[in-house]
Amino acid sequence: MPRATLELVAARAGVSRQTVSNVLNSPQLVAQETADRVREAIEALDYRPHRAARQLRTRRSHVLGLRMPPVADGINGAVLDRFLHAVTEQAQERGYRILLYAAPDVDELEIAQYDELLETADLDGFVLSSTRFGDTRTTWLTEREVPFVTFGRPWGSLAAHPWVDVDGAAGVRAATEHLLALGHRRIALLGWPDDDAVGADRRRGWVEAMTAAGWTGDQLTGMQLLQLDSVEVAVGATRHLLAEVDPTAIVAVSDSLALGASVALRTVDDPPAVVGFDDTPVAAAVDLSSVAQPLDEAAEHVVSLLLSRLDGDGTQPVEQHRLLVPRLVVRGSSRPPAR
After folding, report:
1. For residue 178, how many other CB atoms are within 10 A of its CB?
2. DSSP character at residue 49
């Protein structure tokens, strides 16, 4: 059975959420008859307010929760590692500490960790990453009035929670326009499946740049391959693109895919140019052009937004949403077309 929420208690008792909160924390403010009705609803629904949620209204621990990213391929996993480090530094400068926890990349399993941490740990709030379509984590935290900020937009949702994100479409558009300026016209895309919100956003930048260059929808369909984020998969996908559409350049929505493309091109005479995304240490090591995310700036805004919720007077900050522009780093893999 789903855990009862403050909203359900309020609806059953016929009162506001604030009245339920007052019964739990400041009962002297509520008329006896109303308080009895609220307590009956609490008992009937077996509502159990989180200990940490109560503490948030009375005292502060100066500790924030942040999930450690799952082990990835060693390439793109470095991005969230760098973000985690930057958030830790920003929080530390403001007198806060980060409590790291592990959870699988599945909403229900991560929510289970929230539930346990809110019952057993002394946290002021959470920083969430890796937002996606149908993300239920933010709904769960909002219903329980737990402060949080996400690194990532609320994809496909009208949620009003604070967030910071990087404009992936702008980054891939800049990469594609860079290749067009070098003289390339047949620029293929290695992307993620469209059920991945971040991948869809990045692919949109390639579509916009190629459309502006005169390519039509049917032409674009043949110039892209969407697959899982894997070096090995990208090797095969690149060989398929070479055989089918003969591109002079390839834009990849991650450095993993770009590295796979580079591996496939090692034995090709006059290979296509390649640009990746995330500017990982691997990209720098193999002289791969890539789009760099402003992770330090993102971490600063995430921490500032969360602390404004914790330290403020109850009003929301003027700017709850920040969309940051990434930067193209040009290296040797950006070459003019050989033909």
Report:
1. 20
2. -
